[in-house]
Amino acid sequence: MDPSPDFVLVFSLDPHYNSPVRGLPQDKGVKAKRAEQLRSEHSALVTRLKTAGFAVQGRKGAHSTNSLLLFVKADEHRVRQEATRERMSDWLHGLASPKPSPREPRDFAAEPIEESERLRLVYSILTSSMPAGEAASIRSSASTGPVCGLPLVTQLPPSPANKVEFPHLVDMYPPHNPVQNRLWLKRWSNLPTNSPSTTGSRNPLDMLTIPQHELDDLKAVLGERVAMYFAFLSFYFRSLLFPSVLGLSFWVLGLPFHPLLAVGFVGWSIVFIESWRLRERAISVQWGTHGLDRVEQARPGFKGEGKTVDPVTGVEKELWSFRRTLTRALAGVPAYMAFVGILGAAISAIYVVETLLGEVYDGPGKKFLTLIPTVLFVTLVPQVTTVWGFVADKLTNFENHPRQRDHEASLTVKTFALQFVAAYGNLLLTSYVYIPFGSFLVPHILGRLPSRHAAALSKSTSSSLQSGSFSVNASKLHTQLVAYSLTAQVTGAFIEIGVPFLKAKLVPKVQEKLHHAPAVSEKDKNESIEEHEDEKEFLKRVREEQLLPTAVIFGEYAEMAQQFGYLVLFGVVWPVAPIWSLINNFFEIRSDAFKITSQMRRPIPSREASIGPWLEVLGLISYISAITASSLVYLYQPRATVPGSAAHYLSNLTHHNVSLPADGSVPFYTTRLATAQSASLPPASDAPLLMGALPPAHGSFVALDAIKSTLLTAAVVALASSHAYLVLRALTRWLLTRLAWDGSVASDLVRRREFELKRAWMDEHGMRLTPNEMARRALGWAEEDADEENKREGEGYKVEAVGDPADAAANVEGLPEFWKRNENGEGLVGAVGKTE
């Protein structure tokens, strides 16, 4: 039997957990007081729930958690009242929707209530805390009855500093719908079809996307936020077809770093982002969430400086100045810069160790020593990003954003700003530091090492370094990009599927060890509360869900944004990277569905009109890609060059074994950067081995000047490309808006809702008149008879009846004599071409 509760509240039965009663746990008096406080808190919680109209049932929690599960189900009449109230508020605030405008109050309740809508409304009743005495109003979206004011899931478990009313309430979650989950996974295990009534699609491209009816079904069960994520993932998956074909073509032709390839990738990113911007707008109109910010309530946890009245709705709200939020946000910038400095220093140090051990050292145990940088990276970088995530959350809460949308946008920017450094830092170092200056920096670093380490390296240094120069590994950028992009996808899949699976298996055992309960005697077992046989299967499933982590969509967007960055920022290095992303995302769609249904708790439904700040993150990455792609093409595009005196050095530098004819008649391929590096060959040196790796001052200055000049030119090219990007993006947005949005069904629905709101206001005030009649009433002529009207028209307009003398339409007292004279225009026209 499945009683289908709306929510499950987890209540800790540990009297010492977060108890407001102070004292040592061993004190018998403290124990008794805490036990009494626990019973009183439970009784007050159940009373609060029943007062709000909930049916409540309690059962024992998961094994070894020492908790109580409170199953709550809202009254059906209350849910319908809340749904009607919310729909009225949406219509009043002008949210676009495909539903026709109501003609009478019962039209708001005519539509059935979806499962996600019900859970969202119930969650609002559980967590909202409407001030006492505030009347329900569709203008303020206030509740239609008593609310519980329980802590939000994001604020749980509570701490004593929170001073919450129910400190032992540690969690709440909606149970999964196993029937819907099985149907979802069964349908998505195969390629989705374009229509629910057909077994195939005529358009092969429709097989590469999730059809709209599947997204609508998903929205009805899990809510708009989850459905919007899958809509984005599906759109992104299908959009990868173009860069995949483009990159494969250039890879087959052997044309990396080609300008057309860079233009193709950057142009695709612009079209993809702007197309999705319109796509999500159309989806939000279909789901009735377009303009959701108009009804967005104050963020839980937001505290204002006082009370004020909204000048539009007349509803009392918290007073808070954006200037204070901005000031607090700027105060957190030094903390971000400090973390960027720490992370940048760590990545740079690891990079140096990796270069020395991987490309300089060639002694015993090299295979094991080259693992040291990887261990350091995996150990240090995630720790820094994790600590920053904690600090970023605290800083965002300190900023005190009034709306949840602004809060999430600020947190997203802070989080991804550091992830950008962690994900792309090594690639940027390789592109703009190691390859251009490595032949000078590596010997310099070796010369700075302590003597004992220098001596250890000198015994096993590569032949190129012993000969007086260090040749950089020009293929390192390509190797790194392949490793990072593929590793990120493999590790991401393991973290999403493998880690939750292991947690589900290991967490119960760990908790049993940590919270080992004393053995229960047979007498206690017989006296314990027995559970009905028809409940056991249901309770087992709910207790398993209690131990699962909460589903968070934030991490899924971060993963897709990082993958998008690898493609557009460095796609010219490895043109076939989009193909692997296409393959990965085919499984990503299904693995995310499996994870949400099996490895995570059911997400609490919430409405969404967009992917939020992640759209701006993708736009920023796309803009930066115009800079990186153009500069990489300028620096590393192979060009045909006739061999000269530096040919052999360039051959070693680029790791190309080429045969150069003596007469120099056959060209070979090099890059602008390699040409600059060969401006001065390092001559032989009689200095000691390690110091001899440094070229003499004159030669190094010439080469460095050539490299700096090349990089400066690349910077100018990147600057010009960034400006061209802005022009192209504006043109693309304008063109797609005209082609795909203007005149579309979604656009007409938005215009219709705004138009009908004003027309309804005119109906209410009896102002549905013809334009002529409307003007007559506005001018006060509605009650005049025909004689008075003819008399007025003959005498001209009266200033007193029309308006102020400054009114241009009021300055006509009568027609001047000029307008009563004969009109000579016809005679002048007729005289054209005639001669005397």
TrEMBL record:
Region annotation Disordered: where it falls in the sequence: 782-803
UniProt xrefs under InterPro entries: Anoctamin, Anoctamin_N_fung, Anoctamin_TM
Residue stretches making up the Anoctamin alpha-beta plait domain: 5-133
Transmembrane segments: 257-276, 329-351, 371-391, 411-435
Molecular functions (GO terms): chloride channel activity
Name under which the protein is recorded: Uncharacterized protein
Keywords: Membrane, Transmembrane, Transmembrane helix
